[in-house]
């Protein structure tokens, strides 16, 4: 995944001449120290957009303000201040009226208010009365930021120049619907996984864990309470036909409460607002065990912020399927043997994806590292650390 490739320590790249200078004369008591182990670069989210500063003050006496960024995939607006009189709301919608959502004075947090993203390159923001009548002219809203989702062209250009963790010859993952008939059990688990959009333009993958209001992703995607307010999860962002490019907006929900995190396991648990709206998507469960080497597996996620993909084929394995290649390998934190390894294809944005056993269809790891082999934090350790066993 982008920004998280495992890199050799600088010392491991010493030139032969430098190595010769370290030669110890015969009979000397001093031993040459062993080379330092390869360092693991800290993972980071992928980026599908950029945050820009704006300066706009709305009042109840004016018409809507339209913010446009040509060819943007989405726009996400931030209000630094609200003074909405009783009965008034801040209305945010696409310029064509789609994805209309309303926010009240009570939605304002100490750091402001991040509205949910609106697909497309224009967003209309206005102050209206909640009952559809005229707002109080004295109501105001100050807009100070907008996150612009990169255009399709920009995303392709960024994809072309990054050494993503695609193992073997080309990408083996496909739109989830491609497996609807071929692998119905695995396809049946895909709805519980969503695309995670962050306020600054970052993106990862997140998924419902258990029947309660709990969503899991990586700590390097959401690592603190302050990051929850601007985060949103988009369920159902997937193509209706195999390779069709006909994805819809899906169902978007904002982050609500930061529940628990572990930097050592690179895992974060949080809740979302409007939980009932995503109940139809089902949930996944942890497989509280260490998987076997050679066990078949698959990954559900949003590589490169694309519509949801199912990574189940592996052109580097003997049988053509993704398998667990190693267990009890090192990860990014202080916890030893925290990860499992695999050659299943991922990209930036796959961070936070569930890695599932094909035998049990439960989660055996939380994907977080690329580099072939790619790696995920072990589900049995996450279950113990988070009290989810």
Structure description:
- This protein has helices at residues 16-21, 152-160, 184-188, 379-386; strands at 46-47, 49-59, 65-68, 74-83, 88-94, 101-103, 113-114, 118-119, 122-129, 140-149, 174-175, 193-197, 202-208, 215-217, 232-235, 251-262, 267-272, 297-301, 309-311, 324-329, 339-342, 354-357, 363-369, 374-378.
- The chain is mainly beta.
- The chain has a domain at 49-149: Sandwich (Jelly Rolls), CATH 2.60.120.
- Strand 5 (88-94) and strand 6 form a beta hairpin.
Please give the radius of gyration in angstroms.
Answer: 23 Å
CATH topology of the domain at 49-149: Jelly Rolls
Largest sheet features: 8 strands, antiparallel
What is the CATH C level class of the domain at 49-149, in words? Mainly Beta
End-to-end Cα distance: 29 Å
Oligomeric description of these chains: single chain
* Count, helices: 4
Calculate the mean pLDDT score and round it.
86
Which strand order spans the largest sheet, edge to edge or round the barrel? Answer: 11-19-18-22-23-24-21-20
Q: Tell me the CATH architecture of the domain at 49-149.
A: Sandwich
Helix content: under 10%
Pfam families: Trypsin_2
Protein name: Serine protease
Organism: Amycolatopsis antarctica
GO molecular function, one term: peptidase activity
């Amino acid at each position: 995944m982008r920004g998280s490739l495992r890199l050799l320590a600088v010392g491991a790249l010493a030139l032969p001449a430098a190595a010769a200078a370290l030669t110890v004369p015969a009979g000397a008591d001093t031993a040459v120290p062993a080379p330092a182990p390869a360092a693991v670069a800290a993972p980071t989210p992928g980026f599908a957009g950029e945050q820009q500063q704006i300066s706009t003050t709305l009042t109840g006496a004016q018409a809507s303000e339209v913010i446009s960024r040509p060819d943007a995939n989405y726009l996400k607006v931030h209000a630094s201040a609200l003074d909405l009189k009783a009965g008034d709301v801040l209305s945010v919608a696409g310029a064509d009226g789609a994805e209309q959502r309303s926010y009240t004075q009570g939605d304002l947090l100490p750091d402001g208010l991040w509205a949910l993203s609106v697909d497309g390159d224009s967003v209309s923001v206005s102050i209206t009365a909640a009952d559809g009548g005229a707002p109080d002219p004295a109501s105001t809203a100050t807009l100070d930021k907008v996150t612009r989702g990169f255009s399709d062209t920009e995303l392709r250009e960024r994809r072309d120049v990054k050494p993503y963790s695609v193992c073997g010859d080309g990408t083996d993952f496909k739109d989830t619907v491609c497996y609807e008939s071929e692998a119905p059990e695995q396809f049946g688990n895909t709805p519980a996984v969503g695309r995670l959009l962050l306020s600054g333009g970052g993106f990862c993958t997140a998924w419902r864990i258990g029947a309660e209001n709990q969503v899991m992703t990586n700590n390097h995607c959401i690592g603190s309470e302050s990051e929850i307010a601007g985060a949103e999860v988009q369920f159902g962002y997937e193509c209706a036909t195999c390779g069709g490019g006909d994805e819809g907006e899906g169902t978007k929900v904002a982050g609500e409460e930061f529940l628990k995190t572990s930097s050592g396991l690179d895992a974060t648990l949080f809740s979302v607002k409007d939980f009932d709206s995503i109940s139809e998507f089902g949930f996944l469960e942890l497989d509280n065990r260490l998987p076997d080497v050679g066990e078949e597996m698959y990954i559900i996620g949003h590589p490169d912020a694309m519509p949801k993909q199912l990574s189940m084929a592996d052109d580097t394995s003997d049988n053509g399927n993704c398998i667990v290649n190693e267990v009890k390998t090192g990860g990014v934190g202080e916890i030893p043997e925290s990860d499992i390894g695999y050659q299943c294809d991922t990209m930036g944005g796959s961070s936070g994806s569930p890695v599932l056993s094909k035998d049990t269809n439960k989660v055996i790891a939380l994907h977080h590292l690329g580099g072939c082999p790619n790696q995920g934090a072990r589900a049995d350790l996450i279950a113990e650390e988070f009290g989810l066993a």
